[in-house]
Design a protein that fits this description.
84% helix, mainly alpha, 148 residues
Protein backbone atom coordinates (compact mmCIF):
# COMPACT_ATOMS: atom_id res chain seq x y z
CA UNK A 1 0.00 0.00 0.00
CA UNK A 2 2.77 2.53 0.70
CA UNK A 3 4.00 2.06 -2.89
CA UNK A 4 0.58 3.05 -4.29
CA UNK A 5 0.44 6.11 -2.03
CA UNK A 6 3.94 7.08 -3.03
CA UNK A 7 3.08 6.76 -6.74
CA UNK A 8 -0.09 8.78 -6.25
CA UNK A 9 1.87 11.50 -4.47
CA UNK A 10 4.43 11.57 -7.29
CA UNK A 11 1.66 11.79 -9.90
CA UNK A 12 -0.07 14.51 -7.91
CA UNK A 13 3.18 16.48 -7.59
CA UNK A 14 3.82 16.17 -11.33
CA UNK A 15 0.28 17.28 -12.06
CA UNK A 16 0.64 20.30 -9.77
CA UNK A 17 3.96 21.16 -11.41
CA UNK A 18 2.40 20.96 -14.90
CA UNK A 19 -0.52 23.05 -13.73
CA UNK A 20 1.83 25.69 -12.29
CA UNK A 21 3.79 25.86 -15.56
CA UNK A 22 0.54 26.19 -17.52
CA UNK A 23 -0.63 28.95 -15.17
CA UNK A 24 2.67 30.80 -15.61
CA UNK A 25 2.38 30.66 -19.42
CA UNK A 26 -1.23 31.89 -19.22
CA UNK A 27 -0.24 34.77 -16.96
CA UNK A 28 2.46 35.88 -19.40
CA UNK A 29 -0.06 35.77 -22.28
CA UNK A 30 -2.58 37.82 -20.29
CA UNK A 31 0.11 40.38 -19.37
CA UNK A 32 1.26 40.55 -23.00
CA UNK A 33 -2.35 40.98 -24.11
CA UNK A 34 -2.94 43.76 -21.57
CA UNK A 35 0.24 45.50 -22.65
CA UNK A 36 -0.79 45.29 -26.29
CA UNK A 37 -4.25 46.68 -25.51
CA UNK A 38 -2.58 49.57 -23.68
CA UNK A 39 -0.32 50.26 -26.67
CA UNK A 40 -3.30 50.18 -29.04
CA UNK A 41 -5.21 52.55 -26.76
CA UNK A 42 -2.22 54.92 -26.86
CA UNK A 43 -2.27 54.75 -30.68
CA UNK A 44 -5.98 55.59 -30.70
CA UNK A 45 -5.25 58.56 -28.44
CA UNK A 46 -2.64 59.87 -30.89
CA UNK A 47 -5.05 59.54 -33.81
CA UNK A 48 -7.85 61.21 -31.83
CA UNK A 49 -5.53 64.14 -31.07
CA UNK A 50 -4.75 64.46 -34.78
CA UNK A 51 -8.45 64.46 -35.65
CA UNK A 52 -9.05 67.15 -33.04
CA UNK A 53 -6.18 69.22 -34.45
CA UNK A 54 -7.63 68.83 -37.94
CA UNK A 55 -11.03 70.00 -36.65
CA UNK A 56 -9.45 73.15 -35.18
CA UNK A 57 -7.69 73.92 -38.46
CA UNK A 58 -10.82 73.20 -40.49
CA UNK A 59 -12.85 75.50 -38.25
CA UNK A 60 -10.19 78.20 -38.57
CA UNK A 61 -10.21 77.98 -42.35
CA UNK A 62 -13.99 78.22 -42.47
CA UNK A 63 -13.94 81.21 -40.10
CA UNK A 64 -11.35 82.96 -42.27
CA UNK A 65 -13.40 82.31 -45.40
CA UNK A 66 -16.51 83.56 -43.57
CA UNK A 67 -14.78 86.80 -42.65
CA UNK A 68 -13.68 87.40 -46.23
CA UNK A 69 -17.12 86.39 -47.50
CA UNK A 70 -18.86 88.70 -45.04
CA UNK A 71 -16.84 91.62 -46.38
CA UNK A 72 -17.48 90.66 -50.00
CA UNK A 73 -21.17 89.82 -49.76
CA UNK A 74 -22.54 92.15 -47.09
CA UNK A 75 -20.90 95.42 -48.15
CA UNK A 76 -23.98 96.76 -49.94
CA UNK A 77 -26.53 95.20 -47.58
CA UNK A 78 -25.42 96.26 -44.09
CA UNK A 79 -23.85 99.34 -42.52
CA UNK A 80 -20.09 99.55 -43.05
CA UNK A 81 -19.24 99.25 -39.35
CA UNK A 82 -21.27 96.02 -39.03
CA UNK A 83 -19.62 94.47 -42.07
CA UNK A 84 -16.17 95.38 -40.74
CA UNK A 85 -16.95 94.11 -37.25
CA UNK A 86 -18.36 90.78 -38.37
CA UNK A 87 -15.62 90.19 -40.94
CA UNK A 88 -12.94 91.06 -38.39
CA UNK A 89 -14.51 88.85 -35.73
CA UNK A 90 -14.55 85.85 -38.06
CA UNK A 91 -10.93 86.37 -39.10
CA UNK A 92 -9.74 86.89 -35.52
CA UNK A 93 -11.61 83.75 -34.52
CA UNK A 94 -9.70 81.88 -37.24
CA UNK A 95 -6.40 83.03 -35.70
CA UNK A 96 -7.66 81.78 -32.33
CA UNK A 97 -8.57 78.40 -33.86
CA UNK A 98 -5.12 77.97 -35.39
CA UNK A 99 -3.44 78.79 -32.09
CA UNK A 100 -5.81 76.62 -30.05
CA UNK A 101 -5.31 73.66 -32.40
CA UNK A 102 -1.56 73.68 -31.86
CA UNK A 103 -1.92 74.33 -28.13
CA UNK A 104 -4.33 71.44 -27.61
CA UNK A 105 -2.22 69.10 -29.72
CA UNK A 106 1.03 69.89 -27.93
CA UNK A 107 -0.44 69.96 -24.40
CA UNK A 108 -3.18 67.30 -24.31
CA UNK A 109 -3.14 66.76 -20.53
CA UNK A 110 -1.84 63.61 -18.90
CA UNK A 111 0.65 61.82 -21.15
CA UNK A 112 -0.64 58.55 -22.61
CA UNK A 113 1.46 55.38 -22.59
CA UNK A 114 4.09 55.20 -25.32
CA UNK A 115 2.24 54.59 -28.61
CA UNK A 116 3.49 52.72 -31.65
CA UNK A 117 2.08 55.41 -33.94
CA UNK A 118 4.37 58.31 -34.71
CA UNK A 119 3.15 61.76 -33.73
CA UNK A 120 3.34 64.75 -36.03
CA UNK A 121 6.48 66.69 -35.15
CA UNK A 122 5.64 69.83 -33.14
CA UNK A 123 7.82 72.05 -35.36
CA UNK A 124 5.67 71.13 -38.37
CA UNK A 125 2.47 71.92 -36.47
CA UNK A 126 3.74 75.27 -35.27
CA UNK A 127 5.13 76.20 -38.69
CA UNK A 128 1.91 75.34 -40.54
CA UNK A 129 -0.27 77.16 -38.05
CA UNK A 130 1.96 80.25 -37.99
CA UNK A 131 1.62 80.41 -41.78
CA UNK A 132 -2.17 80.00 -41.50
CA UNK A 133 -2.26 82.69 -38.82
CA UNK A 134 -0.28 85.05 -41.07
CA UNK A 135 -2.73 84.38 -43.90
CA UNK A 136 -5.59 85.25 -41.53
CA UNK A 137 -3.87 88.46 -40.46
CA UNK A 138 -3.31 89.33 -44.13
CA UNK A 139 -7.03 88.71 -44.74
CA UNK A 140 -7.85 90.98 -41.81
CA UNK A 141 -5.62 93.72 -43.22
CA UNK A 142 -7.28 93.22 -46.60
CA UNK A 143 -10.72 93.59 -45.04
CA UNK A 144 -9.72 96.82 -43.30
CA UNK A 145 -7.85 98.37 -46.23
CA UNK A 146 -10.34 97.49 -48.96
CA UNK A 147 -11.96 100.77 -50.01
CA UNK A 148 -15.40 99.30 -50.79
Amino acid sequence: MPVKTSNKLKESAAHIQDSAAHMERSTVRVEDSADRRTELAADRTVFAAERTYAAWVRTGLVAMASGIGAKALLTDLLPHWLVMTSGSAFVLFSVFCFAAGVWRHLYPGLPPPMPDAARIHPVILVLVNVILGMVSIAALIGIWLDPS
